[in-house]
Write a structure and sequence with these properties.
The chain has 617 residues and is of the alpha/beta class. 66% of the residues lie in helices and 7% in strands.
């Protein structure tokens, strides 16, 4: 019962606050011309303790506006769907971003957006409730009316049994009339003009484009450009934005079509740029011969697009893996164009080209030249990356780490930054600093690596964790790697070692035997020895003997250990002749004292055992 009274009290208080706010509007005496005002009321924000307050306030305003013959109010459900589709996350209580306003207008055809916020607070003496209302012109995004009002809890109590003179609904109705009169001119602007659709789509296109939301921008730009006369002198910027958006989306065929179709309609000052963009689009489409032909038209011109074209031609040759021709173009560039603003970029391209052709020493020289000539250049981070990567490929791990660390904080491209972290993990592993190696390895995103590093990276991570003694993490990484590369003997062997450490002997044996089945390799004899030892310890002596015999027949690190193990097996089974045979081979062929001592001791034991047996007889 008490809760119902409080809810009714809060409801009446909201009536009063809404009414008070609307009364406070500066009402115009001008009558509103014919036509209807189309409005969207966005669900109010709630900063009060009553969870239903915002919904109640929203319903009050919608109800008041709907009862006015001159207003058309979009349903709250349609407004909610439109706001959700715009993916608006909010800039603050009672606010709607400009993009959402434009989307509401385009979707629902509205003229006004109404927003609000309900707040309750304490001033140290009593509780208050307040309501902020705002009206926004849906064409311009401008706030054209805003009011704020509040009332104390003392009046809330009084409203439980309000005086007869207070009729909240009729009061709200009167005050909404004043609200409507404060929107002077909305109704006259509600009638669409012939260019309104194009203007709205252009606004949306520009807004999406500036925010980098190119997928959403493209349909609006296409709409606007498609309605322009082909020779419209005002269309230059819109066509340029269309082609540029296609490029940013990676739709190079569409970009090329735009530049090709409208090239003649761009002013002469922009022709070089359009020719360059056509050539670049052809390169990205893999039409290399055509790209070189188009870009060569700019050779000899004295402008930035000529310089850009030469670098782009070098890129065409790089894409074709014709690194020598690419380097010829770049070296000619740095010789002939010492004053070019793109000289720094040319040195970096030379460095990258040398890396691509497997010449890290030459790449190091190009990057070093850049660092010397342009120590504060805007591409200094890229130069440090090339320098560090070259040092890594030259196995100078400390210098590689130093330059990669200098580059990382200033690299904006997430793919390059990810590759730097990957290389730092490798370099720290090589220096033995496994903790730092693990730190960078954990920050690497495999999906951003190129194909080969992405394939091998789990194995690298596994080795780092293995070195740190983190066997579970190492096993997880190695297992992930083996799912893609199941026949890597090194990783199979390392996995076997980990499983052995974890007490999972049968699984370890399986890994070692897999290495043996792969045949000759760096881990072949290691795996035979590990497998033989496990089999011997588990009592599978016959299988162990077979593997010991393989090791004892050829020269390998385990040859004499295997022969001694065979001697031990036959000694334990009382087959002394065979045991003696293997021991004499060790005694005759081994050079290390540790093997000789053990063999001689065994032979003495056998002689003693035989003499004792003969004495007994």
């Amino acid at each position: 019962m008490a809760g119902g009274v409080r809810s009714e009290c809060f409801r009446r208080l909201l009536f009063f606050v809404v009414a008070t706010l609307l009364v406070s509007a500066v009402a115009s005496t001008q009558s509103v011309p014919g036509g209807k005002i189309r409005a969207a009321v966005v669900a109010f924000d709630n900063l009060s303790a009553d969870r239903n307050a915002a919904r109640l306030a929203t319903d009050l305003v919608v109800d008041a506006l709907e009862r006015r013959a001159s207003w058309l109010v979009a349903s709250l459900g349609d407004v909610h769907k439109a706001v959700a589709a715009a993916a608006y996350t909010g800039n603050g209580p009672g606010e709607v971003d400009l993009q959402t306003i434009y989307d509401l207008r385009a979707t629902l055809g509205i003229d006004v957006v109404v927003t609000g916020t309900v707040i309750d607070f304490e001033d140290g003496v009593e509780k208050h409730v307040s309501l902020t209302l705002r009206a926004i012109d849906a064409r311009t995004g401008e706030v054209v009316w805003q009011r704020y009002g509040s009332k104390s809890s003392a009046y809330r109590v009084a409203l439980i049994t309000p005086p007869k003179s207070v009729d909240a609904y009729s009061l709200l109705d009167r005050l909404c009339r004043r609200l409507i009169r404060s929107f002077v001119g909305f109704r006259s602007r509600a009638v669409a003009t012939s260019g309104e659709a194009e203007d709205l789509r252009l606004r949306l296109a520009e807004l999406y484009y500036r925010r980098g939301r190119y997928t959403e921008a493209i349909s609006h730009i296409e709409y606007v450009v498609s309605r322009l006369p082909i020779d419209d002198p005002q269309a230059e910027s819109r066509r340029h934005m269309l082609g540029d958006t296609y490029e940013r989306l990676g739709e190079w065929d569409q970009a090329y079509a735009v530049w090709e179709r409208y090239e003649a309609f761009f002013p002469t000052a922009r022709r070089s740029e359009i020719t360059f963009r056509k050539g670049r689009a052809l390169r990205m489409l893999g039409r290399h011969d055509e790209a070189v032909e188009a870009l060569s038209l700019l050779d000899g011109l004295d402008d930035e697009w000529s310089d850009r074209a030469l670098l782009e031609i070098a890129a065409v040759y790089r894409d074709s893996a014709d690194y020598d021709r690419a380097l010829d173009v770049l070296n000619e560039f740095v010789e002939r164009r010492r004053d070019s603003e793109l000289l720094d970029r040319a040195y970096l391209e030379i460095g990258m080209m040398h890396l691509s052709r497997g010449d890290p020493a030459a790449a190091l020289g190009a990057a070093g030249t850049y660092i010397e000539l342009f120590p504060a250049g805007e591409r200094i981070a890229t130069a440090r990356y090339i320098y560090g990567r070259s040092m890594q490929e030259l196995s100078n791990w400390p210098e590689a780490i130093r330059f990669l660390l200098k580059a990382l904080p200033f690299v904006d491209d997430p793919v390059t930054a990810n590759e730097i972290r990957y290389r730092l993990a490798l370099c720290y592993q090589k220096t033995g600093d496994l903790e730092r190696a693990a730190e960078y390895a954990e920050s690497v995103k495999t999906e951003l690596l190129t194909a080969e590093p992405a394939r091998t990276f789990p194995a690298i991570v596994g080795r780092i964790y293995f070195g740190l003694g983190n066997h579970e993490s190492a096993l997880k990484s190695f297992t992930s790697y083996l799912q893609i590369t199941p026949n890597d003997a090194e990783v199979l062997y390392a996995t076997g070692e980990i499983l052995l450490e974890l007490g999972r002997t049968e699984e370890a044996l399986s890994r070692f035997l897999s290495v043996v089945e792969l045949g000759a390799g760096a881990r072949f004899y290691d795996a035979i020895w590990q497998a033989a030892t496990i089999l011997h310890d588990e009592g599978r002596v016959d299988e162990a003997v077979t593997l010991y015999a393989v090791l004892g027949e050829t020269e390998n690190p385990y040859e004499f250990e295997a022969l001694l193990s065979l001697a031990a097996v036959y000694f334990d089974s009382d087959r002394l002749d065979l045991a003696e045979q293997y021991l004499r081979k060790v005694s005759d062929e081994a050079s290390e004292e540790r093997y000789l001592i053990r063999a001689r001791n065994w032979l003495n034991t056998i002689r003693y055992k035989r003499s004792k047996s003969e004495g007994t007889r």
